[in-house]
Amino acid sequence: MPEVDHGGGYTVKYETQIPAPRATVFAFLLDPDKLMRWMGTGAEMDPHPGGVYLLKGVAGEHTARGTFKEVVPVHRLAYSFGWDERDAVPPDSSLIEIDLEENGGGTLLRITHSGLPTEQERADHAKGWTHYIDRLAKVLSGEPVEPDRKW
Q: How much is the pTM?
């Protein structure tokens, strides 16, 4: 379940166990073809500091955009994040940090999404992270998921 941290804007913290090796989870966060199996309908990823993070068709209709800040293969990702069509959270206005830790034959995934401007945006993004990480876990367990669409 997401937690809230109100220091420096609103923050979503999410932690869950994924039933797959860390390298596999990492690939599903960055490889456009793998990423689109659980989130979005199009992606452009240039995973190095200063590189582009672009994900189209999130929830079937939204475009997320940012810039990679840190890429430590199979361990950590950090990138700025925002939405093309949402003035409250425009591109590059928030920060997503993802840490992966080997744990019990799977991967402990920790996400911190900071810099959200309001409680409503925090709640919306917490709902989104819960929805999408559940989809990621299903895909990595071999379960089918429907194409990304408005939910």
A: 0.91
